[in-house]
Amino acid sequence: MGRHLFWRTALVLLLSLWAIGVTPIMAQRQRNSLEKPLSLPDINLIIEARWDESSLNFTVRQPLFFDRRSQPAQAYYQTQQFKQLLPLMIEEALGFIRFNDRELASERFFKDPQAPQAVARIAESATLLSSQYDPSFQYVVANYRLDLARHIGAYFVLHDRARELSRNYNWVAGDDYSGILISATEELPIRGSNRRGEAVAALSPRIYDDQLQPVAGFQNVAPEIIRHQGMVGYASASDVTYITERVGKNPLRIIAKELSGIALTDIIIDNQDAVRILSRRHNRQLVAQGKIVIVINGIHEEKQLTIGP
User: Fold this and answer.
1) Among 8, 130, 175, 258, which residue carries the largest CB count within 10 Å?
2) Is 293 exposed, middle or buried (0-12, 13-18, 19+ CB in 10 A)?
């Protein structure tokens, strides 16, 4: 009886010691398993800002690898890993999109101590457009999308109403227009230099008259408009449908005169055109309503990078 009790006690003790030693090992193996996909093949990432669609697109591509899973299960597993990387992808995107002439979106964004939490919330808003194999069945490819205005530009809105610009102007012939259409497709002189350049898209461009007095800026557009469709729209010259949707059939048509600043996001227009906008309340309201389209060449911007282990 005493011998049986001794061996039973010894067996319980040995099992307890084994569990104490093995549990950390099992936990470490589990952690290594979770980390493993990100330490295997590199992930290729293409970030594309399509200003004409107000979209920020991410194409993620990684070689298909197997870790005791079926091929469909492995593809799903890798796609889930891509989703966890979305905050990093968004940070990379903010690093090449311009907020205004002076700042990249990332420079403005990360001034806020709550920016990391905001990035996580934005990542949750991303739409998975597709997840599939490439034609060779050797890669998993996923496509995600964010809205430049609703998910990115909206974050920078701090004002609660549009600030109206009004100055005393002599009357000039004009009309109550349906919108403002600015053509900046040509290389233009850069104010203060001997160079020429092409206009660059931004979340918060400025429009000036010939005396560098403001005609339109971020604060002059109603916050709900910026959150929904952006301060201004960008389009190519051939995108007639979008232009008509945003500025109507009778817009004030303006040829940009010069560019201003370092990043070339700000546009200078002729004084007469500025007066046609600012001398009539109806036309000033076009600015507040975001009924502005700038026609440029660079409506698509792209960045490619590799995310390694």
Assistant:
1) 258
2) buried
